[in-house]
Amino acid sequence: MTSRRLFTAALVAALPFASVFGAQAVAQDLRDITFVQPSPSAINSFPVFVAIGEGFFEEEGLNVTVEAINGSGAVLQALSAGQAHFGRPGPGPLIAAKSRGVDAVHIYNVAARSNFGIAVQEGSDIQNIEGLRGKVIGTGTADGAEVGFARNVMTGAGMVEGTDFEFLTVGDGGPATAAFLNGEIDAYSASTADTAILNQRGMAVRDITPAEFGRFFGNGIATMADTIANDRELVEAWSRAFAKGHAFALDDANREAVLAHLAAGNPQEGEDKEFQSALFDAVRSKTVPTDDAEHLGWYPAAVWEEWQEALVAGGEIAAPLDDLGAIWTNEFAKIGNEAVGG
C-alpha cells in the first residue's frame, strides 16, 4: 500500500493536471470533501463537475475538491489511505483490491454501459479479437479499469496473458499515439474518451470489442465501508448531489450550462468546443441506464458475478470473494434518485 508520504507526493505531482475546486470563498459551515478521479478529464466525471457548478453539493453542505491521479489503483489507494472521501474506480480493480483487504464499496454505477473497448488502427489487418493472438495490447495504466476489461475480453476468447498476448503500459493521448506509430502496440484498450482523443489527434482507430461485452459496466463512485458505517449522512448527501448533477446533465435543455461547467473543470478540454461537445456526447451515452435498470446509478448483481468470474479466470484474483455483495450497493443511488424525483 502506498504510504501517506508517497501518496501525498503523487497528488502534488498531479496538481498541474488536476481540476481543483474550492479556491473561492465558501461558507464556514461547508464541509471540505475530496473526490479523486483516475484521469484529468472533467468530462469523464461530468456529474461531479455539474453538481459543483450548479451548487448541488453546496446545498448539501459540501465543498468538493477534485484531484486527478493515475488510474483506478491509485484511486483505491487514496480512499484506503484516507486521502479522499469518494473516488471513481473501475469494478475490476475494486474486486482485486477487496481480495487484498481494501474495504471499498461501489455506491453509484456511473458508466452503466461499458465505457471501454479494444481498438486497433483504422487500416490494421486485425478484424476481431482472435486477430490479437500473439499481439501486444497497449494500456493507459498498469492497473486501471481498462486492463481488467481487456483481460476479461481476451479470457473470453480463450487467450492467456503472457502466452497468447501481452499488455504494455504506454499511457494515453500522445504516448498511445506514439506507441501505435512506433509499432510498440497492435491494439489499445481504451475508454470512450481515449478513443475519441486518438481520433481527434489524427490516429484513426476502430473498436473490435465483441458486442456482448457492452453489458460490463465501467467506473463508478466508491467510498470506504467505514465511511458508510460511521458517516452515513455524508454518503447520503454526496449521493443526492451527485444524482442531481447526473440527471441535470442528461437533460439536453441544460447542455450549454453543462459544457460551461466542464470547461471550468478542465479548461484544456474546453478549448475546442466542437470536440468537447462530441466527447461529452460519447461519454454521457455510456451513463444512460440499461433497459432493465431500476434507476440512475443502479447495479445489476449478475454482471458483478461476471466481472468476478473474469478476474478469477484471468488470474487477477486467486478465488472468488467470500462476499461479493459487500463491495457494492444500490441503496445510495436510490436515495439520490429520490432526491431528483426518480
Structural account:
It is a single chain. It is globular, with a radius of gyration of 19 Å. The longest helix has 19 residues. It contains 15 helices and ten strands. The strands form three sheets. The chain has a five-stranded mixed β-sheet with strand order 7-6-8-5-9, with helices on both faces. A three-stranded parallel β-sheet has the order 2-1-3. The protein has a two-stranded antiparallel ribbon with strand order 4-10. Strand 6, helix 6 and strand 7 form a beta-alpha-beta unit. It folds into two domains: 233 residues, D-Maltodextrin-Binding Protein, domain 2; 100 residues, Periplasmic binding protein-like II (D-Maltodextrin-Binding Protein, domain 2, 3-Layer(aba) Sandwich). The protein starts with a helix and ends with a helix. With 342 residues, the chain is an alpha/beta fold. Helix 2 crosses helix 10, helix 5 packs across helix 14 and helix 6 crosses helix 14.
